[in-house]
Amino acid sequence: MCDNNPKKQSQDFEHQYLRNEIETNKKMIFERALIIAGTALAATILPKEAKGIELLGIPAIAALAFNFWLSVNRLRSNMRIVAYIQLFHESENEMEWMGWENSLRIYRIWLKKCKDEYNFSETLHSGIDQYDNLSFYIPIRYLHIAMAFAISFFMSYRVWTADQHTNIVWDNLSLWVILFNTIAFIIFLIWILASSYFRPKELLHGIEKDRIRWVAVFKSYRMGCLKAALFNEAQQPATQGFGPKSGPHL
User: Fold this and answer.
1) Is 42's pLDDT higher than 70?
2) Using N-to-C axis directions, what is the helix angle for 137-165 and 172-194, rounded to 10°?
3) Alpha-carbon distance 221 to 199, whole Å?
4) Residue 46 gets which letter from DSSP?
5) Torsional sign, CA 26, 28, 32, 33
């Protein structure tokens, strides 16, 4: 029998939409990295007469860095969505449903206004090792490192073989190109390995942390702690920064 309850239909649609969003976030993560690295490495087999190809290593490594950062952000977004689905759609004691966009708006305001009131350190010892959430993250991490190394190495190797082909022994320009490619890889490696934002252990309890955050967000909302912030945001002009004020942003 068809359920004609508009709210239930909206909840079901949102549930499916968010699950599709999780799958979309997982797509093109490996593919984008392979396209970037493949394009850069394919350029190394161009004729030796093609000048300046070796300098493509630096923007290619920068593109890999951006893709890796984007991949981590998508993983974190997935954790927030999964925690929301667990609490608002698939829990036996589902929380009061307000819709994803409204909930996300409240979540962001809470992070800005009220986050410091809560301590999430207890989740680090929750005993829930969510390795399933990292199943595709760790290979992505090392894949990006391997690809950046390959780009740096083969771009430098192209310079060296070009010099040998033309009987030029390591002129100054070649040394600079090799140096810049090597520095680009070292910076990339340090950025990935040294930043706590990218460490697997920082993501280990990501869903559990987001579950606690969502509960805290709506506890604050029900207690009225966010009402002032929501009201002040609603009073900001809709055209702020784009022309004359036209009234409150509702």
Assistant:
1) yes
2) 170
3) 32
4) S
5) positive
Residue 200 amino acid letter: P
pTM over 0.70: yes
Domain boundaries, the chain: 6-234
Cα(162)–Cα(172) distance, rounded to whole angstroms?
14
State both tokens at 30: 């490996």
Structure tokens, 28: 């093109």
Tokens of residue 39, six digits: 């394009």
pLDDT recorded at residue 178: 86
Instruction: In whole angstroms, give the CA distance from residue 127 to residue 86.
Output: 19
SS3 content of the chain, % helix, strand, coil (to 5): 75, 0, 25
pLDDT of residue 246: 38
Token readout for 20 is 């599709």
List, in sequence order, the alpha helices (H) in the chain.
6-26, 29-43, 57-88, 100-113, 137-165, 172-194, 200-203, 206-222, 227-234
Q: Whole-angstrom Cα distance, residue 15 to residue 220?
A: 24
